[in-house]
Design a protein that fits this description.
33% of the residues lie in helices and 29% in strands. The protein contains eight helices and 18 strands. Bound molecules: adenosine-5'-diphosphate and magnesium ion (MG).
Length: 308
Protein backbone atom coordinates (compact mmCIF):
# COMPACT_ATOMS: atom_id res chain seq x y z
CA UNK A 1 0.00 0.00 0.00
CA UNK A 2 1.48 3.42 -0.88
CA UNK A 3 2.30 5.86 1.94
CA UNK A 4 0.11 8.92 2.50
CA UNK A 5 1.76 12.19 3.41
CA UNK A 6 0.87 15.71 4.47
CA UNK A 7 3.37 18.59 4.38
CA UNK A 8 2.70 22.02 5.90
CA UNK A 9 4.37 25.04 7.50
CA UNK A 10 3.95 25.59 11.27
CA UNK A 11 6.11 26.21 14.35
CA UNK A 12 8.58 28.15 12.21
CA UNK A 13 9.47 25.12 10.11
CA UNK A 14 8.25 22.72 7.43
CA UNK A 15 6.52 19.66 8.83
CA UNK A 16 5.71 16.30 7.27
CA UNK A 17 3.55 13.49 8.57
CA UNK A 18 3.79 10.19 6.69
CA UNK A 19 1.51 7.22 7.32
CA UNK A 20 2.36 3.73 6.10
CA UNK A 21 0.13 0.74 5.45
CA UNK A 22 -3.09 2.74 5.48
CA UNK A 23 -5.18 4.28 2.72
CA UNK A 24 -6.60 6.81 5.18
CA UNK A 25 -5.35 10.37 5.26
CA UNK A 26 -7.73 11.57 7.99
CA UNK A 27 -5.45 10.83 10.99
CA UNK A 28 -2.61 12.79 9.33
CA UNK A 29 -4.97 15.71 8.73
CA UNK A 30 -6.11 15.63 12.37
CA UNK A 31 -2.49 15.66 13.57
CA UNK A 32 -1.80 18.53 11.19
CA UNK A 33 -4.66 20.67 12.54
CA UNK A 34 -3.57 19.97 16.09
CA UNK A 35 0.00 21.12 15.32
CA UNK A 36 -1.30 24.28 13.62
CA UNK A 37 -3.53 25.07 16.58
CA UNK A 38 -0.60 24.55 19.01
CA UNK A 39 1.37 26.99 16.86
CA UNK A 40 -1.44 29.55 17.16
CA UNK A 41 -1.62 29.27 20.93
CA UNK A 42 2.05 28.73 21.91
CA UNK A 43 3.98 31.05 19.57
CA UNK A 44 5.67 34.18 20.95
CA UNK A 45 5.69 35.55 17.41
CA UNK A 46 1.90 35.90 17.29
CA UNK A 47 0.62 38.86 19.30
CA UNK A 48 -2.77 37.13 19.72
CA UNK A 49 -1.41 33.81 21.07
CA UNK A 50 -2.23 32.90 24.64
CA UNK A 51 1.49 32.94 25.42
CA UNK A 52 1.75 36.53 24.20
CA UNK A 53 -1.26 37.42 26.35
CA UNK A 54 0.39 35.84 29.38
CA UNK A 55 3.64 37.70 28.66
CA UNK A 56 1.80 40.99 28.26
CA UNK A 57 0.35 40.50 31.76
CA UNK A 58 3.71 39.75 33.43
CA UNK A 59 3.71 41.27 36.91
CA UNK A 60 -0.05 41.90 36.75
CA UNK A 61 -1.57 38.68 38.07
CA UNK A 62 -3.02 35.44 36.80
CA UNK A 63 -4.02 34.54 33.23
CA UNK A 64 -6.22 31.58 32.33
CA UNK A 65 -4.45 29.14 30.03
CA UNK A 66 -5.40 26.10 27.94
CA UNK A 67 -4.65 22.52 29.02
CA UNK A 68 -1.89 22.30 26.37
CA UNK A 69 -0.15 25.48 27.57
CA UNK A 70 -0.47 24.18 31.12
CA UNK A 71 1.16 20.83 30.20
CA UNK A 72 4.01 22.51 28.32
CA UNK A 73 4.68 24.76 31.29
CA UNK A 74 4.62 21.88 33.74
CA UNK A 75 7.03 19.87 31.58
CA UNK A 76 9.25 22.95 31.11
CA UNK A 77 9.52 23.56 34.84
CA UNK A 78 10.35 19.90 35.44
CA UNK A 79 13.16 20.12 32.85
CA UNK A 80 14.44 23.33 34.43
CA UNK A 81 14.72 21.52 37.76
CA UNK A 82 16.49 18.57 36.08
CA UNK A 83 19.04 20.84 34.38
CA UNK A 84 19.49 23.31 37.20
CA UNK A 85 18.03 26.09 35.08
CA UNK A 86 20.10 25.53 31.91
CA UNK A 87 16.75 25.03 30.18
CA UNK A 88 14.64 27.97 31.32
CA UNK A 89 11.28 28.66 29.73
CA UNK A 90 11.39 32.23 31.12
CA UNK A 91 14.48 33.03 29.01
CA UNK A 92 12.17 35.16 26.80
CA UNK A 93 13.95 38.49 27.45
CA UNK A 94 17.34 36.89 26.66
CA UNK A 95 16.03 35.18 23.51
CA UNK A 96 14.48 38.43 22.29
CA UNK A 97 17.68 40.38 22.97
CA UNK A 98 19.84 37.93 21.02
CA UNK A 99 17.26 37.53 18.26
CA UNK A 100 17.60 41.28 17.62
CA UNK A 101 21.39 41.06 17.91
CA UNK A 102 21.51 38.27 15.32
CA UNK A 103 19.20 40.16 12.98
CA UNK A 104 21.26 43.35 13.24
CA UNK A 105 24.62 41.57 13.55
CA UNK A 106 25.46 43.73 16.53
CA UNK A 107 26.31 42.62 20.08
CA UNK A 108 23.93 43.77 22.83
CA UNK A 109 25.31 46.01 25.60
CA UNK A 110 26.44 44.50 28.91
CA UNK A 111 23.68 46.50 30.58
CA UNK A 112 20.96 45.00 28.38
CA UNK A 113 22.36 41.50 28.94
CA UNK A 114 22.35 42.05 32.73
CA UNK A 115 18.76 43.30 32.66
CA UNK A 116 17.50 40.36 30.56
CA UNK A 117 19.39 37.91 32.76
CA UNK A 118 17.81 39.34 35.90
CA UNK A 119 14.35 38.84 34.39
CA UNK A 120 15.07 35.17 33.62
CA UNK A 121 14.12 32.74 36.37
CA UNK A 122 11.82 29.74 36.02
CA UNK A 123 10.69 29.95 39.64
CA UNK A 124 8.86 33.16 38.71
CA UNK A 125 6.53 31.22 36.41
CA UNK A 126 3.76 30.11 38.75
CA UNK A 127 1.04 27.62 37.92
CA UNK A 128 -2.37 27.35 39.56
CA UNK A 129 -3.53 23.79 38.96
CA UNK A 130 -7.02 24.20 40.41
CA UNK A 131 -7.97 27.11 38.18
CA UNK A 132 -5.81 26.38 35.13
CA UNK A 133 -3.99 29.69 35.39
CA UNK A 134 -0.41 30.89 35.13
CA UNK A 135 1.44 34.05 36.02
CA UNK A 136 4.85 35.64 35.69
CA UNK A 137 5.80 37.40 38.90
CA UNK A 138 7.75 40.38 37.59
CA UNK A 139 6.89 42.98 34.98
CA UNK A 140 9.08 42.57 31.89
CA UNK A 141 9.39 38.78 32.25
CA UNK A 142 8.36 36.55 29.35
CA UNK A 143 8.16 32.88 28.47
CA UNK A 144 9.51 31.56 25.18
CA UNK A 145 8.56 28.01 24.22
CA UNK A 146 10.96 27.80 21.24
CA UNK A 147 13.07 25.19 23.05
CA UNK A 148 10.23 22.75 23.79
CA UNK A 149 7.20 23.45 21.56
CA UNK A 150 8.22 21.22 18.65
CA UNK A 151 8.90 18.27 20.96
CA UNK A 152 5.59 18.77 22.73
CA UNK A 153 3.76 19.04 19.39
CA UNK A 154 5.46 15.86 18.11
CA UNK A 155 4.29 13.97 21.19
CA UNK A 156 0.70 15.21 20.85
CA UNK A 157 0.68 14.36 17.13
CA UNK A 158 1.96 10.84 17.87
CA UNK A 159 -0.85 10.43 20.44
CA UNK A 160 -3.47 11.43 17.87
CA UNK A 161 -2.11 8.96 15.31
CA UNK A 162 -1.97 6.11 17.84
CA UNK A 163 -5.51 6.81 19.04
CA UNK A 164 -6.67 6.68 15.40
CA UNK A 165 -5.17 3.19 15.10
CA UNK A 166 -2.18 4.18 12.91
CA UNK A 167 0.55 1.64 13.54
CA UNK A 168 3.39 2.83 11.26
CA UNK A 169 4.22 6.51 10.73
CA UNK A 170 6.95 9.14 10.68
CA UNK A 171 6.41 12.63 12.11
CA UNK A 172 9.04 15.16 11.11
CA UNK A 173 8.76 18.66 12.56
CA UNK A 174 11.82 20.34 11.08
CA UNK A 175 14.35 17.90 12.49
CA UNK A 176 12.32 16.77 15.50
CA UNK A 177 11.47 13.29 14.32
CA UNK A 178 9.21 10.59 15.68
CA UNK A 179 8.86 7.05 14.37
CA UNK A 180 5.76 5.04 15.28
CA UNK A 181 5.88 1.30 14.86
CA UNK A 182 8.17 -0.27 12.30
CA UNK A 183 11.86 0.75 12.22
CA UNK A 184 12.74 3.65 9.90
CA UNK A 185 16.04 5.29 9.09
CA UNK A 186 16.24 9.06 9.57
CA UNK A 187 19.04 11.49 8.70
CA UNK A 188 20.89 13.58 11.31
CA UNK A 189 21.67 17.08 10.03
CA UNK A 190 25.35 17.89 9.50
CA UNK A 191 25.86 21.14 11.47
CA UNK A 192 28.50 22.29 8.97
CA UNK A 193 26.51 21.73 5.79
CA UNK A 194 23.36 23.23 4.30
CA UNK A 195 20.02 22.12 5.75
CA UNK A 196 19.10 18.70 4.41
CA UNK A 197 22.68 17.38 4.29
CA UNK A 198 22.93 14.49 6.76
CA UNK A 199 26.01 13.72 8.81
CA UNK A 200 24.77 10.21 9.38
CA UNK A 201 21.64 8.23 9.93
CA UNK A 202 19.83 6.67 12.84
CA UNK A 203 17.42 3.78 12.72
CA UNK A 204 14.53 4.49 15.06
CA UNK A 205 11.69 2.27 16.20
CA UNK A 206 8.94 3.67 18.38
CA UNK A 207 11.27 6.51 19.34
CA UNK A 208 11.94 10.21 18.86
CA UNK A 209 15.13 12.02 17.87
CA UNK A 210 15.53 15.74 18.63
CA UNK A 211 18.43 17.94 17.54
CA UNK A 212 19.62 21.24 19.01
CA UNK A 213 22.39 23.26 17.48
CA UNK A 214 23.71 26.75 17.11
CA UNK A 215 24.29 26.37 13.38
CA UNK A 216 20.95 27.34 11.86
CA UNK A 217 20.70 30.95 12.89
CA UNK A 218 23.53 33.19 14.05
CA UNK A 219 26.62 35.17 13.11
CA UNK A 220 30.31 35.26 13.93
CA UNK A 221 31.87 38.31 15.52
CA UNK A 222 35.52 38.56 16.67
CA UNK A 223 35.88 34.89 15.78
CA UNK A 224 33.11 33.83 18.18
CA UNK A 225 29.89 32.30 16.91
CA UNK A 226 26.73 33.90 18.34
CA UNK A 227 23.54 31.91 18.04
CA UNK A 228 20.04 31.53 19.47
CA UNK A 229 20.56 29.14 22.40
CA UNK A 230 21.33 31.25 25.44
CA UNK A 231 23.10 30.17 28.61
CA UNK A 232 21.01 31.73 31.41
CA UNK A 233 24.07 31.69 33.70
CA UNK A 234 25.92 34.18 31.51
CA UNK A 235 23.12 35.72 29.45
CA UNK A 236 25.10 35.01 26.28
CA UNK A 237 24.93 32.30 23.58
CA UNK A 238 26.20 29.01 24.98
CA UNK A 239 29.79 28.04 24.35
CA UNK A 240 30.18 24.44 25.48
CA UNK A 241 32.26 23.17 22.57
CA UNK A 242 29.32 21.48 20.83
CA UNK A 243 28.05 22.22 17.33
CA UNK A 244 24.98 20.08 17.77
CA UNK A 245 23.42 17.43 19.95
CA UNK A 246 20.80 14.86 19.00
CA UNK A 247 18.92 13.07 21.76
CA UNK A 248 17.01 9.83 21.27
CA UNK A 249 14.29 8.52 23.56
CA UNK A 250 10.57 8.10 24.05
CA UNK A 251 9.40 11.41 25.53
CA UNK A 252 9.70 14.13 22.87
CA UNK A 253 8.87 17.22 24.97
CA UNK A 254 11.46 16.24 27.55
CA UNK A 255 13.97 15.38 24.80
CA UNK A 256 13.50 18.78 23.17
CA UNK A 257 14.02 20.71 26.41
CA UNK A 258 16.95 18.52 27.43
CA UNK A 259 18.60 18.84 23.98
CA UNK A 260 18.60 22.61 24.46
CA UNK A 261 20.04 22.17 27.97
CA UNK A 262 22.67 19.61 26.91
CA UNK A 263 23.79 21.96 24.14
CA UNK A 264 24.37 24.58 26.86
CA UNK A 265 25.92 22.31 29.50
CA UNK A 266 28.19 20.29 27.18
CA UNK A 267 28.55 16.54 26.65
CA UNK A 268 30.50 15.60 29.77
CA UNK A 269 28.37 17.48 32.26
CA UNK A 270 25.20 16.04 30.72
CA UNK A 271 26.12 12.35 30.66
CA UNK A 272 24.88 11.43 34.18
CA UNK A 273 21.45 12.97 33.44
CA UNK A 274 21.18 11.21 30.07
CA UNK A 275 22.28 7.85 31.46
CA UNK A 276 19.85 8.07 34.35
CA UNK A 277 16.95 8.79 31.97
CA UNK A 278 17.95 6.19 29.38
CA UNK A 279 18.43 8.81 26.66
CA UNK A 280 20.85 8.19 23.78
CA UNK A 281 22.91 11.00 22.28
CA UNK A 282 24.93 11.97 19.20
CA UNK A 283 27.32 14.87 19.91
CA UNK A 284 29.11 16.85 17.19
CA UNK A 285 31.95 18.93 18.62
CA UNK A 286 33.61 22.09 17.33
CA UNK A 287 36.84 20.12 16.82
CA UNK A 288 35.03 17.91 14.33
CA UNK A 289 34.43 14.88 16.52
CA UNK A 290 31.23 12.84 16.37
CA UNK A 291 30.52 10.95 19.59
CA UNK A 292 27.64 8.64 20.27
CA UNK A 293 26.45 6.92 23.42
CA UNK A 294 27.02 3.12 23.33
CA UNK A 295 23.30 2.26 23.27
CA UNK A 296 22.93 3.98 19.88
CA UNK A 297 25.93 2.44 18.16
CA UNK A 298 24.05 -0.48 16.54
CA UNK A 299 21.57 1.98 15.02
CA UNK A 300 23.85 4.82 13.95
CA UNK A 301 25.68 5.07 10.64
CA UNK A 302 28.23 7.86 10.11
CA UNK A 303 28.39 9.01 6.46
CA UNK A 304 31.61 10.97 6.83
CA UNK A 305 33.93 12.39 9.44
CA UNK A 306 33.24 16.12 9.84
CA UNK A 307 35.78 18.12 7.84
CA UNK A 308 36.63 15.11 5.66
P1 LIG B 1 15.59 24.74 17.53
O1 LIG B 1 15.30 26.21 17.49
O2 LIG B 1 16.54 24.32 16.49
O3 LIG B 1 14.38 23.89 17.67
P2 LIG B 1 16.09 24.41 20.38
O4 LIG B 1 15.09 23.37 20.69
O5 LIG B 1 17.39 24.25 21.08
O6 LIG B 1 16.44 24.50 18.86
O7 LIG B 1 15.42 25.79 20.77
C1 LIG B 1 16.06 27.02 20.70
C2 LIG B 1 15.04 28.06 21.12
O8 LIG B 1 14.76 27.94 22.51
C3 LIG B 1 15.51 29.50 20.94
O9 LIG B 1 15.19 29.97 19.66
C4 LIG B 1 14.75 30.21 22.03
O10 LIG B 1 13.43 30.47 21.59
C5 LIG B 1 14.67 29.19 23.14
N1 LIG B 1 15.79 29.25 24.09
C6 LIG B 1 17.03 29.79 23.96
N2 LIG B 1 17.78 29.59 25.06
C7 LIG B 1 17.00 28.87 25.92
C8 LIG B 1 17.20 28.35 27.24
N3 LIG B 1 18.35 28.49 27.88
N4 LIG B 1 16.17 27.69 27.81
C9 LIG B 1 14.98 27.53 27.16
N5 LIG B 1 14.74 27.99 25.93
C10 LIG B 1 15.72 28.66 25.31
MG1 LIG C 1 14.96 22.17 22.34
Amino acid sequence: MPAVQTMFPALGTVNTITLYDTPQKLPADCARSLICSLDRSLSVFRPDSEISRLNARAGCGWTEISPDAFSVFRESLRCSELTDGAFDVTAGPLSALWRDAIRERKLPSARDIRRARRLTGYRDLQLDDMNSRARLRKAGQSVDLGGIAKGYAAGRAAGILRDAGVSNAVINLGGTVGVLGRAQTVGIQDPCRPTGTPLGSLTLKDAFAVTSGGYERGFTIDGVRRHHIIDPRTGTPSDSGLLSVTLVGRRPAELDALATAVFILGAEASMPLLRERDIGAVFVTEEGGVFITPDLSPDFKLYRQKGA
